[in-house]
């Protein structure tokens, strides 16, 4: 479970953003999740409940999964139903720096009003011996009714107890030249 808050520190201010993300393993393979976000200034809320299931496409360390999400999104001051299928890939990696992971998550939200939002997040993460994590992300978004965006999102996650972590990060979105600071709290069960 994660709670996070992003605030603009440089560039056009599109408002602060808060998010809640939750995953729970219903079975050994089936995962239930919630993905909720709120723009603080605009008051817009997006909420998706999803199910994720692994698929075996190859032998080896590569892991693939499909997901299907349902929910709603606020668009032009009204709530619209949302269908969000997704596909992801990940694998562990090792190098001179230690061990970590690579991953790519893609989703394509289809809105009841005919709009859509495609997203691809690519991640390289490092597991440190003390339990901390370093994460480097590229986030691409392509809305049907706006400009495509690309953001570089590095963060460092500090282990504060056996199950709790604090995330400190930055985000720089290149299209609008917006830099945001991110603070998050993670908890595993």
Please state the overall shape, judged from the principal axes of the Cα atoms. globular
Give the beta-strand count.
Answer: 12
Through-space gap between termini: 8 Å
Give helix and strand order, one letter per element, not per position.
EEEEEEEEEEEE
Strand content: over 45%
* DSSP helical segment count: 0
Derived from helix and strand composition plus strand pairing, the structural class reads: mainly beta
Strand ordering within the main sheet: 1-2-3-4-5-6-7-8-9-10-11-12
> Roughly what percent helix?
under 10%
Please describe the biggest sheet, giving its number of strands, its sense, and whether it closes into a barrel. Answer: 12 strands, antiparallel, barrel
Q: Which runs of at least 5 residues are low in confidence (pLDDT < 50)? A: none
Instruction: Please tell me the overall pLDDT.
Output: 94
Gyration radius (Cα, Å) is 17 Å
Short description:
The chain has strands at residues 2-10, 17-25, 31-39, 45-55, 63-75, 78-95, 98-111, 116-127, 133-143, 149-159, 164-173, 178-187. The chain is mainly β and 189 residues long.
């Amino acid at each position: 479970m994660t709670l996070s808050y992003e605030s603009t520190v440089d560039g056009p201010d599109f408002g602060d953003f808060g998010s809640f993300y939750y995953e729970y393993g219903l079975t050994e393979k089936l995962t239930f999740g919630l993905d909720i976000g709120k723009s603080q200034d605009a008051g817009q809320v997006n909420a998706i409940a999803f199910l994720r299931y692994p698929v075996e496409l190859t032998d080896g360390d590569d892991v693939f999964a499909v997901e299907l999400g349902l929910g709603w999104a606020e668009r032009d001051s009204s709530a619209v139903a949302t269908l969000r299928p997704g596909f992801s890939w990940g694998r562990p990696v090792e190098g001179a720096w230690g061990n970590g992971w690579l991953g790519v998550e893609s989703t394509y939200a289809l809105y009841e009003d005919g709009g859509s939002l495609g997203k691809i997040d690519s991640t390289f993460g490092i597991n440190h011996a003390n339990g901390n994590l370093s994460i480097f992300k590229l986030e691409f978004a392509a809305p049907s009714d706006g400009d495509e965006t690309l953001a570089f999102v590095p963060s460092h996650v500090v282990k504060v107890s056996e199950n709790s972590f604090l995330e400190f990060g930055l985000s720089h979105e290149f299209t609008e030249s917006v830099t945001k600071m991110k603070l998050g709290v993670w908890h595993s069960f």
